[in-house]
Write a structure and sequence with these properties.
Elements: H1 4-10, H2 22-51, H3 57-76, H4 81-86, H5 93-124, H6 130-144, H7 152-156, H8 160-185, H9 189-209, H10 221-252, H11 255-268, H12 270-292, H13 298-321, H14 323-331, H15 339-348, H16 352-365, H17 368-421, H18 425-448, H19 460-488, H20 495-508
């Protein structure tokens, strides 16, 4: 049977690898990833606005609890199969089929665990209706595990437009199905079946859009095991790290403060989850291809860092500055306790670009033992700070503790990366100094205009108008400052030039 690489050529993917530089294709791929997240969010919002009028809140609660269990088990068993294939210089059928088999074992194993625990879990939550829902969730886990491993080529060849097509149709089908079923059934089964339909449609679509047909074998497990085992340990530490905040806050302050903390952290993480995450997903493929071509990725890292900073730094500072109206308008007055948290987290998250891009390179270069050691040490430090600050300062103490660790994490990861890639701090500063000055000017302008930090007076309509004005003024002051500094510097190569080039290509496409 044909080798996966030959099949990729038949699918028109290998030609994409020759269409422009690695950096340009990575940037274009990141655009498609961000685009998918935006479309997915919009479809989710439309679906939610309709479903909340047809279904009771308890329906969403039952499904959320059941799906969270599946996602948690899946995360705990995540071993980085796609990453192992992408970074491999000569992936063959043995590697692809082994990856498919491992994914199938994971998915079916997760399903068995969920089914076996369905009755005890339903009793724990005192909700017998969850039993049958969990059985369907278990089936969905098994179905999803049969997804065609060939679609990893979309990431491997940085063909994220193909991945966009692959994901869009199942999502549209599930949204329509969910709404129709909600009108018909009027209970939680509409949500359950909509999710199952999405899982089935995704698997079917994976075989329609890519010609590869996987087989069952574990003969290539040694080629994956070392990398995958370390990825699993790192994910395990990550799960423990993310859980510590809620555990300490819940123990000291109670469930209400856990909810308020979650709202502040969720809003502050938007630049990271919606921008940095998709960019790093595309960057993983770009760094992998550069590595296979003998390039350590240092120059590409600088270019991507500058571009990420240009987008995420003003977004983080902006969220911090307008935290009050965002929380007040989006969640209501009872959630205003999240405002100071968002003000702190918003600034802290502006440095996540450094650690995120470093973490991506660590995974590509397989510097996983170093990553695991750093994560364990930082997790211990995180727990210590939370235990020391939360009893004394409450939620503010939690925000300060987590922000300190986040900043330290970014600095440590980035220092290790720059040393190994032999990239100077001067070169890094040259890529971001105009962005930092622009963010500073934006902050000053909004403070002078009394549109930044602290409580805002007025009814919701007035707050909304001021928020729109603050966003417009902040974007204008940042954009004009960065543009003027770039022009005064002689229009050097960097994030500004890359962004203008990307916009130009977008208009021409």
């Amino acid at each position: 049977m044909a080798d996966p690489i030959d099949i990729a050529a038949d699918a028109g993917l290998k030609s994409l690898a020759r269409d422009g530089s690695v950096l340009s294709r990575t940037a274009r791929g990141a655009g498609w990833v961000v685009g998918w997240r935006f479309v997915n969010r919009v479809l989710g919002l439309i679906s939610t606005l309709i479903l909340v009028r047809l279904l009771a809140p308890s329906a969403f609660g039952i499904v959320a609890l059941s799906m969270n269990l599946m996602f948690s088990l899946a995360q705990l068993s995540e071993v980085g199969i796609q990453g192992a294939i992408i970074r491999n210089e000569r992936p063959d059928r043995e590697l692809y089929d082994t990856g498919f088999t491992i994914n199938a074992i994971r998915g079916f194993g997760t399903g068995v665990v969920i089914a076996a625990c369905a009755i005890p879990i339903a009793r724990f939550f005192n909700n017998p209706e969850m039993v049958n829902v969990l059985y369907v969730v278990a089936i969905g886990s098994a179905v999803s595990s049969l997804e065609n491993i060939g679609v990893v080529d979309f990431r491997r060849f940085i063909a994220f437009d193909k991945e966009f097509q692959f994901k869009l149709m199942p999502r549209l089908i599930s949204v329509v199905a969910g709404v129709v079923l909600a009108f018909w059934l009027r209970n939680y089964w509409a949500l359950v079946f909509a999710i199952l339909i999405n899982q089935v449609a995704t698997v079917v679509m994976s075989y329609l859009i890519h010609p590869y047909r996987p087989g069952l074998t574990l003969s290539g497990w040694r080629r994956i095991s070392g990398y995958s085992a370390m990825i699993w340990l790192i994910n395990l530490v990550g799960v423990a790290q993310s859980a510590t905040s809620n555990i300490v806050i819940g123990r000291v302050s109670g469930a209400a403060d856990v909810g308020i903390y979650g709202v502040g952290a969720e809003i502050a993480s938007l630049p990271s989850s919606e921008l940095i995450g998709p960019l790093c997903r595309a960057a993983f493929s770009g760094f992998s291809e550069a590595k296979q071509n003998g390039d350590n990725g240092g120059m590409m890292m600088l270019r991507l860092l500058g571009l990420m900073a240009l987008i995420t730094v003003p977004a983080g500072f902006g969220l911090s500055l307008v935290a009050f109206p965002i929380v007040k308008l989006g969640f209501g007055a009872k959630w205003l306790g999240a405002v100071p948290l968002l003000e702190i987290f918003g600034i802290a998250t502006t440095v996540t670009i450094f650690g995120s891009i470093a973490g991506t390179l660590f995974a590509v270069q397989a510097w996983l033992k170093t990553s695991l050691k750093l994560d364990i040490g930082l997790t211990v430090l995180r727990v210590g700070l939370l235990i020391g600050l939360v009893p004394r300062y409450g939620l503010i103490g939690a925000a300060i503790a987590v922000s300190i660790i986040d900043v330290v994490t970014q600095i440590v990861y980035f220092m290790v990366m720059t040393r190994r890639l032999q990239v100077s701090v001067v070169a890094i500063f040259a890529r971001v100094w105009r962005t930092l000055i622009g963010a500073g000017v934006m902050t000053v302008v909004l403070l002078v205009a009394h549109l930044g930090w602290g409580p805002w007076a007025g009814r919701d309509a007035i707050l909304a108008a001021h928020l729109v004005g603050a966003v417009a003024l902040g974007a204008a002051s940042f954009g004009v400052t960065v543009l003027l500094l770039w022009l005064a510097s002689g229009r050097p190569d960097g994030a500004e030039a890359d962004l203008l080039l990307a916009l130009s290509r977008f208009r021409q496409s």
